Structures are given as C-alpha cells and as structure tokens.
Automatic annotation (TrEMBL):
Membrane topology (UniProt): Multi-pass membrane protein
Residue ranges constituting the ABC-2 type transporter transmembrane domain according to the UniProt record: 59-199
Pfam families for this protein: ABC2_membrane_3
InterPro entries with a match to the protein in the record: ABC-2_transporter_component (IPR051449), ABC2_TM (IPR013525)
Keyword Membrane among record annotations: yes
The species this protein was found in: Hyphobacterium marinum
Alphabetical UniProt keywords: Cell membrane, Membrane, Transmembrane, Transmembrane helix
Compartments in which it is found: Cell membrane
Domain of life where this protein originates: Bacteria
Protein name listed in UniProt: ABC transporter permease
Transmembrane spans: 21-42, 62-80, 107-130, 136-155, 167-188, 226-246
Record bears the keyword ATP-binding: no
Amino acid sequence: MTAGSSIAGLHAVFRRELGSYFTTPLAFVFLAAFAFAAPAFAFNVGRFFDTNRADLAPLFAYLPWLLMILMPALAMRAWAEERDRGTIETLLSLPVPVWAASLGKFLAAWVVAGLALALTFPMWIAVNYLGAPDNMAIAAGYLGAFLLAGAYLAIGQALSATTGNQVVAFVLGVLAAFLLTMAGSPFVTGALSSAVPAWLVEAIAHLSALERFSAFQSGVIGVKDLVYFLSFIAGGTAAAGLLIGASRAGGR
C-alpha cells in the first residue's frame, strides 16, 4: 500500500469519526458539559474573582481533573463501540492500514477536545479586559492542556481497543488517567518509598502528568515536557493499532 493511499485512508477514517461525533448528540453533550464545568470549577471552586489576579490559574488548576474524567468519556467509544456493533470487521476489511485507522480515530477525538478547550476562550478575553495578564503564559497553559488531553485520549483509546464494553473502557480510562496524574504526588511516593528502591520511586514520580502540566501552567515550554506528552500520544495510538491488528490477525 502506497503512502498516498495510506494518507487517504487516514483522512477517510478521520472524516468518518469526526462526522459520527456530530451526527449524534455525543459531541454536543460533551462540549456543553465542558463549557459548563470548566468555568464552574474556576469561578466556584477556584474562586476566580477572589484571587484579584489577571490570569487563568484557577482554570488551569482544575483542568487536569476535568480532563481526567471527560477524555476517557470521549475515548471510550473509539474501538469498544466498533466491537459492540460488529462494525470493526467492516472497518478492518477496508484498504486502510491499522495505524491509519487508529491515528484517524485519535485525531478526530483530539479535534473535539480542542473545540472544548476553545469554548473557554471567553475567560481569556475577560482577564485581558480586567487586567494585563501574561498572554504567553496563558497560551503555554492552553498548549499544555491540549497535549494533556491528547495523552489521556490516546491512553483511553488504547484501553477501548481491549474491550467491547464502553463502560469498562471508560472506567479503565479514568483509572489510567488518575494513576498517571497522581504518579508524582506525595501520597503515592510516600507509600512506595518503603516498598521499592528510591530510584524506582523517582522514576515513577517523573511519570506524573500533573508535574509536566505544571510547567506549562508556569509559561515554560520545555523540550522534555513536549517529548513526554507526545510519547504518550504516539504510544497510546500505536498500542491501539497493535491491539486491533492482533485481533484482526486472530479473527476477532
């Protein structure tokens, strides 16, 4: 199969998936939930107006926890729905490489996630109206949130490829995102320090998505942090493709 036909197949899967989000209420419900929940956390829990600061720190402080729930909800249908409806055989019979199908599904979901983040832009406009924020730092925070959403989506879609039950895929996705987020917390490192070597505790702490996202929150875009998120995105997408490819080879 030529590179041109593979790209055409990727584009076809991307359009199919993106269209499927908006031909059902799923995308609209997801976007509405995000548009309501993100400001609600920032205004009520983060006490946005009480900080007397012209920045989006209250929003970014709670985005990881919101993404940890909503991204698995967006990812759970990727392959589990195909298995449940029996359409996965039709998809895999098309002249589309598995990697292209996996990447196409991921990119479609990532676009929806990007649209959800874009719905919080009025808050960015508001802080510019109220004061003089560091817009470069805010832009870095949004980039970090987009990459974090991509990492959660890729992991969620890989887990979706292991089951035909969307609820199971969602629970597994939330659990994986939670573990990835909490990896560097004192609670986890303290619990592990008495059971595993110090070097392993440190290695696990470095896997913390929250720690990497915090750098973007501060306006710092580091190469190591970019590589971290892109590695999870690439690894999750590749894992989904391998799992689906293995099921095709096994006739399932």
